[in-house]
Each structure stands twice: as structure tokens, then as C-alpha cells.
């Protein structure tokens, strides 16, 4: 619409004037994904968002995603200004892993190497040996296991369980979950697969084990994109936040992408898998923070050096 185009035009101008660049996650609204790419920013997963923000020369990063992504950007670039459309955009994994409770959990397992998922607060990252995202978690835990480490894992129990099954590593798991991926339903997925027997099934490992077990490819958002490009198939069933459908359909207009069924599936909403916090990001919010400088992400400076260490280990491991 005309209003959307006017918002985008204004944002483009302000990005230039403010020496700012947009960093968007695959799960946010398509407008924010496309605008980030058109203006020299990036749309990606949390690992590449972190790397891009660290390496880009712009003085201001506008992060469309959820709180932990803005915090990671700030931790890696404390001298940059990090703005987010809505500072209340959090994540059920972050909320479900309070720093004090996590410290107590760690104390019960002093002999274990602490590996935390990027979807955590700065105060939890500051207690970790390693930070991982879903695109590198498997490789990092496998390397740690091979080096003789026992693992303390937090917070996603499904991703942790998947890694445990794949690597055979000795892991104790925090029992958190993602409100979106936890809702994918194995029984309904079986039914959909019977309807589309030629479909390949792509599953994010934050999903329950019975859903992961039906996957042709288990992987992060970037790995799901890659599978859609490389697998010899025309139909895919995708179990991850449906924000992902935009990039999949944009890159492969000749292929059919079906959303894996969730508890909320119905005639009008076959799958209702969309993160309520990712949905808080919009063009209006981006424009507002560029105009006003409001919604700046702050991380306690006392936490930054310690939180930065395990993130930089991950970036070096995956470089
Ligand atoms: O579910 C999320 O928040 C994901 C997939 C984050 C990420 O690592 O990109
Ligand atoms: Fe967190 Fe799940 Fe939302 Fe990702 S999709 S930000 S893991 S609640």
C-alpha cells in the first residue's frame, strides 16, 4: 500500500542519515526482511546476525528480532548504538531461564562445561563457557565431547535432547522450550505426510522429538533454507516459525511449502506457528526508533566482557 511505501522510503532516508543498518531475523515480517536486504543490511539466523552486526562499519544497528539478538549485538559492539522496534520482544527460552536459578543449577554440576543457547539473557551468557545457536550447536557439542567434556545444557530441552541423541554426549538439560516449536504435532504431521507422500520434511530441532523423528532434514533456519535449495523435491513440509515461509517462497517460487501442523491448526489457520515476540517488530517501530533514538538496547557494562567470551568462541569456531 501507499502508506507502507511511504514508511519504507522514510526509513531508507533515515538509515543513510543516521549511519544505521538493519539486521533482521527470518521470523520477522517480510517487509522488515526485504527492507534490510535492499538497504545493505542482512536477514539471517541469530549466528549470522551477530557476526554481521559485529563486522559492519555502521555506528547504529537496528535489530528486528527479539531481545537476546539486540543484546548480543550490543555485547559484541559496545560502542555502537543498538536500537530495536520493541524492547518487550522477548523469548520463552530467555524468560524460562532466570540468571539466579541458572547459577544454582550450575552450582549443582560444577564438573560440567556450560553450553548455552543464544536465546538467553546477557546475565546467563556471562555464566557460560560456550554460546551456541541451532546452526552450530551439534558441531560444538560433538567437538567438546570428543575432547572429553561433560555438558551442562540450557535452556531448550528439545534441542538439547536432539543433540544428546545425535552425539551421545553426557548432557544434563535445563527444561525450557520455545512456545512456537513446542506446538508442532507429530500425529497431525503423519497425516499431512500421508496426504503429500512426495514431500520432504524440514524440521527445526526446537521441535518435540516425535516431530524431529519424522524429518528428512533437521536443522536451523539457515540449514532449512539450504535443504530447500539442494534437495531434489518440489514439495516441502516445514516445521519452524512461519516467518520462514517468506524467504523459502521468494527463493523457490516453483516449489510448494506447507506449514507443519500445530495445536492451533484449523480450517482458517492451517498452522498458527508464529512467535508473538517476533510479531512485535514492524515498519512503524523501525521508523519510530530511527526518528527518536528511543528503544536503545543497554547491557550492564559489568557483564559485557564475560558474556562476550563464549559468544566470540562460537564465532571463531564457525568462522
Ligand atoms: O527460534 C529462534 O529464535 C531461532 C531459530 C533463532 C536463531 O538461532 O536464528
Ligand atoms: Fe524464542 Fe521460539 Fe520466539 Fe525463537 S520462535 S524467539 S525460540 S519463542
UniProtKB/TrEMBL annotation:
Keywords: 4Fe-4S, Cytoplasm, Iron, Iron-sulfur, Metal-binding, Pyridine nucleotide biosynthesis, Transferase. SUPFAM superfamilies: NadA-like. InterPro entries: NadA (IPR003473), NadA_sf (IPR036094). One of its GO terms (molecular function) is 4 iron, 4 sulfur cluster binding. It is found in: Cytoplasm. Its EC number is 2.5.1.72. Its cofactor is [4Fe-4S] cluster. The keyword Iron applies. The keyword 4Fe-4S applies. It catalyses: iminosuccinate + dihydroxyacetone phosphate = quinolinate + phosphate + 2 H2O + H(+). One of its GO terms (cellular component) is cytosol. GO terms for biological process: 'de novo' NAD+ biosynthetic process from L-aspartate. Pathway: Cofactor biosynthesis; NAD(+) biosynthesis; quinolinate from iminoaspartate: step 1/1. Catalyzes the condensation of iminoaspartate with dihydroxyacetone phosphate to form quinolinate. This is Quinolinate synthase. The lineage of its organism: Bacteria, Pseudomonadati, Pseudomonadota, Betaproteobacteria, Burkholderiales. The gene is nadA.
